[in-house]
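Figure S4 source data
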Amino acid sequence: MKAIATEKAPAAIGPYSQAIEANGFVYLSGQLPIDPATGQFPEGGIKEQTRQSLLNAQAILREAGLELKNVVKTTVLLSDIANFGPMNEVYAELFTAPFPARSAFAVRDLPKGALVEIEMIAAR
């Protein structure tokens, strides 16, 4: 196993890695919509937070020498399932066909009061 980390995404806020590479796959921890430059959520709502979460994940993938096109599976956690549509609009802007497999569901709470958290698995 090899840990992957970049300052272009928020540092882990607990005992975990931004990503781990093993057996040709890169497993990204859930990315909160924290702007690494400010340490804060972006202004706005679910669309802005979704974009920031995806940009954070993209920065980690790039550190591993990969891109969003290498992603084979995502899991999207939402604080409210009513945010699915707006999240999906932004998601569709950053991913291209063939789209990765995906699960998306609402959870009771997300760390720091985030509206979204996105984790990914990418293949070399």
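Figure S5 source data
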Amino acid sequence: MSFPLTRPRRNRLSNPLRRMVAETDLTVDRLIYPLFVTDGQNVKDPIKSMPGCFRFSVDTLIEEAKEVYSLGIPGVIIFGVTDIKDEYGSEAYNGEGIVAKAIRALKKEVPELLVWADVCMCEYTSHGHCGILHDGYVDNDETIISIAKSALVYARAGADMVAPSDMMDGRVKVIREALDNNGFKNTGIVSYSAKYASAFYGPFRDAAGSSPQSGDRKSYQMNPANSNEALLEVLEDIEEGADIVMVKPALSYLDIIAKVKQRSLVPVAAYNVSGEYSMVKAAAQNGWIDEQKVIYEMLLSIRRAGADIILTYFAKDAAIILKKRNF
């Protein structure tokens, strides 16, 4: 059939009707809120490049987590920020380190909140790379041993899921074996399976103090030109035991999210990263965009592409927007 018998605009006449026939849902249940935890007490340090985001000490992190939970956001992912760094990133697997302390506190004070722990070395190495460096090259097989030690520390602290973001080959298998062999069969793995060497990470690296001191991460993070390679990475991680796979960043990689969703039988997460966040905040502060509408449209596009879960610094904003339900 064709016009005038077919008029697709009939299904767009009112907000209730548009909502009823919507092909894609966006709910607060889909969101994970990234949080930065640092040393000290009573710390709530604004991140200049990420307006509205902060570095929290454990005590203020608890208050933030309570607010997050009250908004209906089901979980958070924790990133450590510390001045304790060495060549090997050994603070990453310190059982009394800042992330382990934060996890224990969160599970005690906000027990129903899901706690994911990012597992990587870059915040803890003196050179800023995501693993152990030898002659300018990150040693894959040596690094994954340290990565697994970190994951085990976070599992012991009470993390619901550990999230390796280093992009080393084989790390999901080694983590799964370490968890299973130590009685943590129920601790899940969210793998940053398709993490691209992106220019959109700048504000995060400012927030976490994790910029590489030399070189770049192109020898381990993915080439933005490649999409089939993402499927290779994803399928390998699933075979090794990943419970959830992730694409990072989100907005410039919606096609990758869609490809992965078509091939994956486990949930697919997407990380709406710091650069994507900060550009919106900067434009909104200058009055160039309607911030709330842009946030909604961006997150909806990530869901439409196929993401089951969205990690986003907009999570609190989105929770408030979704309560209004007016667009």
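The longest strand covers residues 31-38. The chain has eleven helices and twelve strands.
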